[in-house]
Specification:
This protein is mainly α and about 240 residues long. The protein has a single domain, classed as Orthogonal Bundle (yeast vps74-n-term truncation variant fold). The chain contains nine helices and four strands, in the order ααββαααββαααα. InterPro entries: GPP34-like, GPP34-like_sf.
């Protein structure tokens, strides 16, 4: 990536469309909640940095569920990540299910506010009440274009992906939120995007059921599985 962005920041910036300055695709039909995908990206980032792990907890009446447990105590220096890390460390959240960890509806706003405070984007509020609109614009359009160009090099032009690219694909596919970051309508090769997305999402690493899977990979797989369940109609 052009800048050292977190997975969640990269997704938020890719979703910042220069055609309408909104974080969504017009006439979108995606079924996933983008905030859930961004929250999952924050969790995956903390796993990748060795700060949290997914662990199994037995209930008092039997049964098993997965939750998050702190495994590293050093702050990351990134406000949204450190805020999540503090919540994981809070004893009252010890038995919170992994799926519930992902079901936040304000993650997008938190990330955008942090990006704005750091001067990476600007936020403009227009109108009031039901007519209120919020426009998010890259502070440096050239840098934003470079981030999207790198993304499209991988997803449209088949450049060899990095691990962050594979994780990005897995998050978008599991969260069913690819339409937020897909190429603009009419982009050459747009039809290839979805097939490439699915291909890369299946390549990020062994599934947690594999006996050869590393602990961090199993944790990431469980997060992705929980992300899919969070978006299911049954909740």
């Amino acid at each position: 990536m052009t800048q050292a962005q977190t997975l969640a920041e990269r997704l938020a910036l890719l979703a910042c469309r220069t055609d309408n300055h909104k974080i969504r695709s017009p006439f979108s039909s995606q079924t996933g909640n983008f905030d859930y995908t961004l929250q999952a990206a924050l969790v995956v980032e903390l796993i990748e940095r060795g700060r949290v792990a997914v662990v199994s907890k037995r209930g008092p009446f039997g049964g098993e569920k997965f939750t998050l447990e702190q495994s590293g105590f050093e702050p990351t220096g990134n406000a949204p990540l450190d805020s999540l890390l503090a919540r994981v460390a809070d004893p009252k959240n010890t038995r919170k299910s992994l799926q519930n960890w992902l079901m936040y509806s304000s993650t997008r706003q938190t990330i955008i506010e942090d990006l704005a405070e750091r001067g990476i984007v600007t936020v403009h509020h227009e109108g009031s009440g039901l007519l209120a609109k919020t426009r998010v614009r890259p502070a440096d359009p050239a840098t934003h274009d470079a981030i999207r160009d790198e993304f499209e090099d991988v997803f449209l032009r088949d450049r060899e992906p990095s691990r962050p690219d594979l994780l990005t694909a897995a998050l978008l596919a599991s969260g069913e939120t690819w339409e937020y970051v897909e190429p603009l309508e009419g982009t050459p090769g747009m039809a290839h995007f979805f097939e490439r997305l699915i291909e890369l999402s299946n390549r990020y690493g062994p599934k947690w059921t594999s006996p050869d899977a590393q602990q961090d990979t199993r944790s990431v797989s469980r997060v992705l599985n929980a992300l899919g369940r969070a978006n299911a109609p049954s909740g």
